[in-house]
């Protein structure tokens, strides 16, 4: 019921055009029967031996031509209307998808794979194409043509009408068996397709890394596993269904229908109920019925797929947007404060609990802790990737939830470990936060980020397009994102393990760029290399979503607690790495 409601809502803007097309198809279906009626009448005329045969036959021929013309004109016109309706609906949906994605919290994109987003934007809309452009018209034709056909056969003789649909119950019974639990199976298939899409994106995005480390043979293992799992599930479902479908389709095949109608017709002729001409007309119309009935079954399948797609799209559209404040406020300063902050992704399990601390303007605050301790979640609350479920995060004394999004990102910038560059020119990527910046200003930012020379070495310099003629390493892409942050010139900056995946040479370049970027700003930094945050004004140690220790590096080492144990383990790892490097 929910899917049906969702589908109705999506089709509502083009529903009137679909109805017009359906009315046109009804006329086309009625015209389809006209030639059969004319053939019967023509046969009667020819068998009657009328002296003025030609004068009588000519109007009948023109009726046949008119019927065929009306069928072609109204049938083609109906499809033309629905295709225009489909184009209009796709434009509406794609704009709505873009609008919806633009209003969602940035944290939503971290919880949803690019494969699932791609499926909604492409595959699900494609599933709706057949429903709008073809299914409505074809289903109406598939229903109306048999109705008009059976109506005319009933006019000839009701027994011939029963004979025309004699094999239909066999197909209906088989079809009911095949479509049992169809919705459940379709849901499973769509989850499988989403998994494959996600693993394809993951494989393509990470192929350079796995090849560099000699793991190319293993890189596609998740994709292969997802594809095999999908294939097995699909084969297990479709195999038995296809065998049933093959057997049931025989009952509606032209030879079987013709045989049944001719054998029965011969019996009826000998019984004196009908004439041979009536049998021929009924048999010809009966042979056209299976094609129409098969179209109905295909249309029902298309509608199920479209309903499922509509349900997924509506689910996206109903995702709560990031609420914009009705009376936005502007921060008074660049200090940041967490006041008894709690956060939960699912509303049940708390990832952060009662977190309170202050970041004075111009200070550097570092977050450390084991994986899953809540570091990245805490940092993204400043960026309002999510809204807190308890407490408040304030900038310059103003709750971030009361700051307009555009205003917020003029105060807070970020450089994350997962670098995202657009398929645009390098220049446009750098000035993403300041589209009006000129080339000279962008170059100054790139120089500060230690990436200007590398950009100039590209085929078209700053006009080179990322992914086309600008193929950057991970460290180089990271420095482009740092240049972007430098150009944006926000007073507050969040750094989330910006050097996590960089090689030693790139890390040195990134560290120099970050040193330039950090000057005079309020910094919240997450680092897995503890030596990089030794000079931080305050280090917060998180464990299980709570702050268990805080202080300077020296104070925390002297306290011999969580941080001291992490520092000792880190020092041991550094010594071990140095010894292994010397041995090589």
TrEMBL record:
Transmembrane segments: 20-40, 60-85, 128-152, 158-176, 250-273, 279-298
Domain ABC transporter: 336-569
Main location: membrane
Membrane-protein topology: Multi-pass membrane protein
Keywords for this protein: ATP-binding, Cell inner membrane, Cell membrane, Membrane, Nucleotide-binding, Translocase, Transmembrane, Transmembrane helix
Domain ABC transmembrane type-1: 20-305
Family in the record: Belongs to the ABC transporter superfamily. Siderophore-Fe(3+) uptake transporter (SIUT) (TC 3.A.1.21) family.
Protein name in the entry: ABC transporter ATP-binding protein
């Amino acid at each position: 019921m929910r899917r049906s409601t969702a589908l109705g809502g999506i089709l509502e803007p083009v529903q009137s055009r679909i109805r017009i097309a359906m009315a046109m198809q009804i006329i086309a279906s009625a015209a389809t029967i006209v030639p059969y009626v004319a053939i019967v009448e023509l046969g009667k005329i020819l068998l009657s031996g009328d002296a003025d045969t030609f004068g009588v036959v000519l109007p009948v021929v023109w009726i046949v031509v008119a019927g065929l013309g009306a069928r072609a004109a109204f049938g083609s016109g109906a499809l033309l209307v629905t295709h225009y309706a489909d184009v209009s609906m796709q434009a509406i949906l794609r704009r709505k998808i873009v609008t919806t994605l633009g209003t969602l919290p940035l944290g939503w994109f971290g919880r949803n794979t690019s494969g699932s987003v791609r499926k909604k934007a492409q595959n699900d809309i494609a599933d709706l194409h057949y429903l709008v452009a073809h299914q409505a018209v074809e289903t109406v034709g598939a229903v109306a043509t048999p109705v008009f056909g059976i109506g005319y056969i009933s006019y000839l003789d009701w027994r011939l009408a029963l004979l025309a649909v004699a094999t239909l119950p066999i197909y209906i019974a088989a079809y009911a068996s095949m479509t049992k639990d169809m919705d459940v199976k379709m849901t499973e298939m769509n989850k499988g397709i989403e998994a494959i899409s996600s693993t394809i994106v993951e494989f393509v995005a990470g192929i350079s890394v796995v090849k560099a480390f000699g793991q190319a043979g293993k890189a596609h293992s998740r994709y292969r596993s997802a594809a095999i799992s999908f294939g097995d599930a699909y084969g297990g479902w479709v195999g038995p269904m296809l065998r049933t479908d093959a057997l049931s389709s025989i009952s509606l095949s032209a030879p079987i229908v013709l045989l049944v109608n001719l054998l029965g017709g011969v019996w009826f002729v000998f019984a004196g109920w009908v004439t041979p001409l009536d049998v021929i007309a009924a048999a010809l119309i009966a042979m056209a019925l299976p094609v129409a009935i098969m179209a109905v079954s295909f249309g029902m399948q298309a509608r199920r797929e479209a309903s499922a797609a509509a349900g997924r799209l509506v689910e996206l559209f109903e995702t709560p947007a990031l609420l914009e404040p009705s009376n936005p406020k502007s921060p008074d300063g660049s200090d940041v404060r967490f006041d008894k902050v709690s956060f939960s992704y699912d509303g049940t399990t708390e990832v952060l609990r009662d977190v309170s601390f202050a970041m004075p303007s111009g200070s550097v605050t570092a977050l450390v802790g084991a994986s899953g301790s809540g570091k990245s979640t805490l940092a993204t609350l400043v960026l309002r990737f999510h809204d807190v479920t308890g407490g408040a995060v304030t900038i310059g004394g103003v709750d971030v939830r009361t700051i307009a999004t555009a205003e917020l990102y003029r105060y807070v910038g970020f450089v994350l470990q997962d670098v995202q560059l657009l398929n645009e020119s390098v220049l446009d990527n750098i000035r993403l936060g300041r589209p009006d910046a000129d080339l000279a200003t962008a170059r100054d930012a790139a120089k500060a980020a230690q990436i200007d020379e590398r950009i100039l070495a590209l085929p078209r310099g700053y006009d080179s397009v990322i992914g086309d003629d600008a193929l950057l390493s991970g460290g180089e892409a990271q420095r482009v994102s740092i240049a972007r942050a430098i150009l944006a010139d926000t007073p507050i900056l969040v750094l989330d393990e910006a050097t996590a995946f960089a090689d030693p040479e790139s890390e040195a370049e990134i560290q120099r760029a970050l040193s330039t970027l950090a000057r005079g700003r309020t910094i919240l930094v997450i680092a897995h290399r503890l030596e990089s945050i030794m000079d931080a004004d305050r280090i917060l140690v998180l464990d299980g979503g709570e702050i268990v220790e805080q202080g300077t590096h020296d104070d925390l080492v002297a306290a011999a607690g969580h941080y001291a144990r992490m520092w000792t383990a880190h020092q041991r790892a550094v010594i071990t790495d140095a010894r292994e490097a010397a041995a090589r």
